[in-house]
Every structure is written in structure tokens, then in C-alpha cells.
Design a protein that fits this description.
Elements: H1 12-26, H2 35-49, H3 54-62, H4 66-77, H5 88-108, E1 113-119, H6 125-136, E2 146-153, H7 156-164, E3 166-168, H8 177-183, E4 184-188, E5 191-194, H9 196-199, E6 202-206, E7 221-226, H10 235-248, E8 249-257, E9 270-275, E10 278-283
Parallel strand pairs: 1-2, 1-7, 2-6, 7-8
Antiparallel strand pairs: 3-5, 4-5, 8-10, 9-10
Helix pairs in contact: 3-4
């Protein structure tokens, strides 16, 4: 293949067709300022697959053999900037307010299991952060409870990283040295691995947030984290996702979204919760 073909420009028509396909499959919407982003991310796939145009690539995705490439597409187009203890005020609100409240409500329902969903969990930093908190509270706030933390993402690549539980010093930068020592094993070269105690709280699976039928199979949750994800959806998809979250939460359970995201514009059945320097949403009973 001519190396120049790997840098072939994406036409506006090709961009719009691929954008519509991505939107239909994932709910992620790219405005026209993102044409270069898609071209940059997908040009490598054209070269690797020996395809002559982005139209040919779309035809592959739409064909009978498109399933495996669709998974690869999701890997290429999703961004996965994250870290442990991201947005500390919200994490601390979860630790000090949300979790005790959810334990109290579960006891009132006669349940001894708490379920937390980290939606779009990327490479696992968020679910493991939550596992650290739950592990530290196992003999106090969570005495007598079993805690299950489900991490889901659309990208198999980041889910494999989450399963491995190996992280570099940069993504661990928000943790105190004592937390690092308590919950991780040093592998050298500034790499650290999650200890087995935290693995026992977590499970990971591929899940597409626009698979509205699939939500029911996930079961009911006490807390859903979906942070810095809704910004990638248009209002129609956002409304559907929020409706699905609402259906999967117990009464008076909690939804935590990104600090720059708001669901005020949607009649979602949630009420705003104010924390110190953070906010969340509670499902109305």
C-alpha cells in the first residue's frame, strides 16, 4: 500500500456518513470540528486494513464481518483520560455522605448487599477508587454488607487494562503514600498493581450505554457513577441514558455525574444534592 494512502484526507461526505454510523452505534456525536480528529484516529486503520478510502472502511463496518472492527473503532474514538481519586470533593462526598446514606437505605429494605456501577469506567481507576473506600469502611459503615462494584466500558482495550489492575505513578498522583502502600504492590519502574483485596469488590464487562434493552440485565444499583460521559451525547441520547439509569436505581439511590455536567434540563425524576464543592442527584422515591 502506498504510504501516502495512510494520510488520505477524509471528505466531508465521508465524515458525515461515518459520524452517523458512530452515533447510531454508540450515541457519541462528533460535530464538524471533529473531522480531523476522526481522520487522524482512523487513517491508521485504513493503512492496516489496506483500504483505499474512508468509504471502504465504512462499508467494512456495515458488512457482515463488521463486528470485530466495530470494537476496534470504539477503541480508536474514545478518550480515556482518568486517574485515581478524580474530582476529590465528589469522591469524598461519596465516602462521607452517599455511602452511609445508601447503607442506611439498604438496611431499611432488609438488604445486606450494595451495588455500585461505574459506567464508562475506562481503565479502572474509578471503580478501584470506590473499592479502596469500601474496603476501608468494611468494619464500620459497611459492616455486614457485601459490596459489588461493576465497571463497564465500550472499549475492550481499556477493560483489559482494568482487569490487569496495573497503573503508573502519574494516574496514582492523587493518592497519599499511605493509600498507595495499603492498596498496591510495587512492580518497579513506577508501576503498581492493585492488591487482590480490591479485585474481589470489582467486576468488569463491555457495555454500550445506548443498549437500552441491555440495562435490565445489569440489575438494580444503589449508586451509579457516570462522570464526564454525558458530554459526548446529544440531548436525545442523554435523555434516554438518564431514563435508563433512573430505572436501574433503587428508590432514593444516587447518580453522580461529572462536575461540568448537568441534568437540570431533563425531567428525569432526580433531585439535586448539594455537597461541599460537589453535587449529585437522588432518585425521587
Amino acid at each position: 500500500m502506498d504510504p501516502l494512502q495512510a494520510k488520505q484526507q477524509m471528505t466531508l461526505s465521508e465524515f458525515r456518513s461515518i459520524r452517523e454510523f458512530i452515533y447510531a452505534k454508540s450515541g457519541i456525536f462528533f460535530n464538524e470540528s471533529k473531522q480531523y480528529f476522526l481522520e487522524n484516529r482512523l487513517s491508521k486503520r485504513l493503512a492496516e486494513l489496506n483500504l483505499r478510502s474512508y468509504g471502504d472502511y465504512l462499508a467494512l463496518l456495515q458488512g457482515l464481518q463488521g463486528g470485530p472492527e466495530l470494537k476496534r473503532l470504539f477503541v480508536e474514538i474514545t478518550t480515556n483520560e482518568t486517574s485515581f481519586w478524580r474530582n476529590p470533593p465528589q469522591i469524598e462526598a461519596f465516602q462521607n455522605i452517599v455511602l452511609p446514606d445508601m447503607a442506611k437505605l439498604a438496611r431499611e429494605r432488609g438488604q445486606t448487599r450494595l451495588r455500585i456501577w461505574s459506567a464508562a469506567c475506562s481503565s479502572g481507576e474509578e471503580p478501584y477508587t470506590l473499592a479502596m473506600i469500601c474496603h476501608d469502611l468494611r468494619d464500620t459503615v459497611l459492616r455486614g454488607f457485601t459490596v459489588e462494584i461493576l465497571g463497564t466500558d465500550i472499549s475492550d482495550k481499556v477493560l483489559a487494562q482494568a482487569q490487569d489492575g496495573v497503573y503508573n505513578a502519574y494516574t496514582l498522583r492523587n493518592l497519599a503514600p499511605e493509600q498507595l502502600q495499603r492498596h498496591f504492590v510495587s512492580l518497579g519502574r513506577e508501576l503498581y498493581q492493585i492488591k487482590p483485596d480490591l479485585h474481589r469488590y470489582t467486576s468488569f464487562r463491555n457495555f454500550n450505554l445506548v443498549d437500552y434493552v441491555g440495562y435490565r440485565a445489569l440489575g438494580a444499583f444503589d449508586v451509579i457513577f457516570c462522570r464526564n460521559v454525558l458530554i459526548y451525547f446529544d440531548e436525545a441520547v442523554k435523555a434516554q441514558v438518564l431514563k435508563a439509569f433512573h430505572a436501574q436505581l433503587h428508590p432514593r439511590a444516587t447518580l453522580l455525574v461529572g462536575h461540568s455536567e448537568s441534568i437540570h434540563a431533563f425531567n428525569t425524576g432526580f433531585e439535586l444534592m448539594h455537597f461541599s464543592k460537589a453535587m449529585g442527584y437522588r432518585k425521587r422515591a
